[in-house]
Amino acid sequence: MGNGIVDDVDRALIAELQRDATQAYATLGKVVGLSAGAAHDRVRKLRERGVIRRTTVDVDPTALGRGVLAFVMVDSSAWMGDATESFAAIPEIQEAHIIAGTASVLVKVRTATTEQLQDVLRRLYLIEGVSGTQATVVLETFFERPVRAD
Amino acid sequence: MGNGIVDDVDRALIAELQRDATQAYATLGKVVGLSAGAAHDRVRKLRERGVIRRTTVDVDPTALGRGVLAFVMVDSSAWMGDATESFAAIPEIQEAHIIAGTASVLVKVRTATTEQLQDVLRRLYLIEGVSGTQATVVLETFFERPVRAD
DNA sequence: AGATCACACCGAACGGCATTCAGCCACCCT
DNA sequence: AGGGTGGCTGAATGCCGTTCGGTGTGATCT
């Protein structure tokens, strides 16, 4: 998995697709100096190799009623390495990472209201080994952008 | 902007598109019980309203040489509300948020190595008003998924 | 009630684009 | 030199995005 090299043309293609994945392969190819067929071939291989995981849409969280964003440091009294499913089972959690430092897990949470955020914290405490949480509410998001490709 | 209501069908369409934005509108319509034309119409309106911001691709950060992920709490001695551009100018920063609490800004950083992470911290200190940083390195990512649509 | 309007959907038609493929070229390995 | 591999071009084909006329429904106004 993940084999093969990602060259400059691949990176340019990825950057273009991140910007707008709906554009035609002919357009895409022109940007990097390739025919439509060649561009298509490269993108197909990038997908096969798992470099491009999927094509998706970016949505406005507020429009979906997920206007409250918070990061929560989760303290634990036990090894949390196998707790993926426990965190994934809470749908309001958008990301979960094991971290180095005093806390052991960092999660990114989106809810409609702060009351719902509180309820997520309650459900976090129900996870085996969780001994504490420290929530940080986001007041304003400067930006959220794709992984840098170039 | 952001006008109009997002009903259950819209949410189902968004959820499908988040899962796979390459599928045909006929398929998409079938999932929610709509014709291809109607599905296309709803998605077009969701785009116009800004509910769907863009169509993009999800990439594997490791494959692009961005294997190191860290969250950095940035302390400041001044008002940081207008510092968007300063943070955006550092390409390794993927997200930047103003937060409530002792720190004032939280940023998500992706680099190839921890040396490069250190260099990002150095550049953060160059931003006017930044008085300190506290970096938390991610050891393992459980998951990162789209905003919940349903 | 009846008339008018707005809105959402369907189904068909058109044209463009994704996808495939044969042929070609450059490079590497033996 | 010869054969194999990988990547590219350009063209052909068929599917799909996109548009549009027509219909049904519910709301508003007279």
In short:
The first copy, chain A, has helices spanning 8-19, 25-32, 36-48, 84-88, 114-125; strands spanning 52-59, 68-76, 93-99, 105-111, 130-144.
Structural write-up:
2 copies of one chain form a homodimer. Chain A is α+β, with helices and mostly antiparallel strands. Chain A has 2 domains: 41 residues, Arc Repressor Mutant, subunit A; 77 residues, Alpha-Beta Plaits. The first copy, chain A, has 5 helices and 5 strands; from the N terminus they run αααββαββαβ. Chain A has a 4-stranded antiparallel beta sheet. In chain A, α1 packs across α2. The radius of gyration of chain A is 20 Å and the shape is elongated. The two termini of chain A are 22 Å apart. The mean pLDDT of chain A is 95. At the A-B interface, α1, β1, α4, β3 and β4 of A face α1, β1, α4, β3 and β4 of B. The structure holds a DNA duplex (30 and 30 nucleotides).
Question: What descriptive keywords fit this protein?
Answer:
homodimer, alpha+beta, Arc Repressor Mutant, subunit A, Alpha-Beta Plaits, 2 domains, four-stranded antiparallel beta sheet, 5 helices, 33% helix, DNA-binding
Secondary-structure element series of chain A: HHHEEHEEHE
From the N-terminal CA to the C-terminal CA of chain A, the straight-line distance is 22 Å
Give, in spatial order, the strands making up the sheet with the most strands of chain A.
3-4-2-5
Overall structural domain count of chain A: 2
Subunit arrangement of the protein: homodimer
Spans of at least 5 consecutive residues with low confidence of chain A: none
Largest sheet of chain A: 4 strands, antiparallel
The radius of gyration over CA of chain A amounts to 20 Å
What does the overall shape of chain A look like?
A: elongated
